[in-house]
Design a protein that fits this description.
Helices cover about 55% and strands about 20% of the residues. A hairpin with a 5-residue loop joins strand 3 and strand 4. By secondary structure, the chain is α+β, with helices and mostly antiparallel strands. The protein folds into three domains: about 100 residues, Beta-Lactamase (2-Layer Sandwich), CATH 3.30.450.20; about 80 residues, Helix Hairpins (Orthogonal Bundle); about 150 residues, Histidine kinase-like ATPase, C-terminal domain (Heat Shock Protein 90), CATH 3.30.565.10.
């Protein structure tokens, strides 16, 4: 073979080899591309099937469910959403388009919060099927599905709930305003009455020394009536101050047993005049607590004073108990008791004229100190008033109390 023939033969062989390689490469590329396309297609079909299953599930949700993009586009509504908005199928709308025009700024801020934090919640109004506005509590959450960020929003009709809340708030404001006006009126009237009444009591004391013995009983009756009215006015002023929330507590470390004994000493003249005994029973000679001394003294004065006033025979006992967190004061009398019908309004001084204002004032003071007050009573069988107050930062219970509890 000549040199030229050999060269031609080699060139032909190389060309055929290159051509075969190209064909093989193209075939291999086609096979790889086909496999990739098949996998992508299967993945896409699986994703669509998964989304279809999820949407079928969401269609049965009672709440309104909206699925959309971060900017509110590509909106999908479940059946409850379609019914609420009065649309059929999946409309070509964005989330912004579904809300009332006056709330579109709100929904844009809602979407901005979603983009920033991944969640948002707002009250928005949408147009109902009959054109009426439906108020939705719209709670949205960004989720990632197959590397794609979507938003799931759940809406709940809260129109009736918000209307009820507004009505309750208005009623509360009206009640507070009524209480303020009543307290202001009571305080003004009490001050107006106090001035002439003080004069009556003062002049009655002077007159007692000027009249003959047979008339002194009448003067004493005038003075006693005047003093009772002054005490009632003081109670009304206390109640007005508490109603207006102008009472300020000044807690301090004190001995509760000593405070109880002091209260009994103040009530002893009235008790001696009626021939009844006063006693204190405590689990320890000293019980420390952090309380407002003035408020505690007023509560004891009212409760012990009532017990003395409504007891004809026997006595009044104050039982003092405590644990590490609270102190209990139980005032027990052997008096006439309270009719069962009067118990529900016992702490409303305006509806319990027989009891005066003492228990109403005591309840507010006890609540102000963070405690509770309760009354147990049987008609003509005595009464027990229990006051429980927090001990504050007074320290642990004394050894005597611990031993008594153990």
């Amino acid at each position: 073979m000549t040199a030229s023939g050999l060269l031609f033969s080699v060139s032909l062989t190389v060309g055929l080899a290159v051509g075969a390689g190209v064909v093989v490469g193209l075939a291999a590329g086609a096979l790889v591309a086909g496999a990739v396309w098949t996998r992508c297609r299967r993945r896409h079909d699986a994703l669509e099937a998964s989304e279809a299953r999820q949407r079928r599930l969401l269609d049965h949700a009672a709440d309104i469910v909206l699925v959309h993009a971060l900017d509110g586009a590509d909106l999908w509504l479940n059946r409850a959403g379609q019914a609420a908005l009065g649309v059929a199928g999946t409309p070509a709308l964005s989330l912004v388009d579904t809300v009332a025009v006056e709330d579109r700024a709100t929904v844009r801020a809602h979407l901005a919060a979603l983009a920033e934090t991944g969640r948002a919640r707002s009250d928005v109004r949408v147009g109902g099927p009959s054109g009426e506005r439906v108020l939705l509590d719209l709670a949205s959450q960004v989720v990632e599905v197959e590397s794609e960020r979507r938003v799931v929003s759940v809406g709940r009709d809260v129109g009736a709930e918000r209307a009820e809340q507004a009505a309750l708030a208005e009623a509360r404001d009206q009640a507070q305003e009524g209480a303020r006006v009543r307290s202001q009126f009571l305080a003004s009237m009490s001050h107006e009455i106090r001035t002439p009444l003080t004069s009556v009591v003062g002049f009655a004391e002077i007159l007692r020394d000027e009249v003959a013995e047979p008339q002194r009983g009448l003067v004493d009756a005038i003075a006693a009536g005047g003093e009772r009215l002054l005490a009632t006015l003081d109670s009304v002023l206390d109640l007005a101050t508490l109603d207006a929330r102008r009472e300020t507590l000044r807690p301090e470390a004190l001995d509760v047993v000593a405070e109880v004994e002091a209260a009994l000493d103040r009530a002893r003249p009235a008790a001696d005049a009626r021939g009844i005994a006063l006693d204190v029973s405590s689990v320890g000679p000293e019980l420390r607590a952090r309380l407002d001394a003035d408020a505690l003294g007023r509560v004891l004065a009212h409760v012990v004073g009532n017990a003395v006033r409504f007891t004809e025979a026997g006595g009044v006992t104050v039982e003092v108990d405590a644990d590490a967190h609270a102190v209990s004061l139980r005032v027990i009398d052997t008096g006439i008791g309270i009719p069962e019908a009067a118990l529900p309004t016992l702490f409303d001084g305006f509806e319990s004229p027989g009891q005066g204002f003492g228990l109403a004032i005591s309840q507010q003071l006890v609540h102000l100190m963070g405690g509770t007050i309760a009354v147990e009573s049987r008609w003509r069988a005595g009464t027990a008033v229990t006051v429980v107050l927090p001990r504050g930062e007074a320290g642990p219970v004394e050894a005597e109390v611990a031993e008594a509890v153990a």
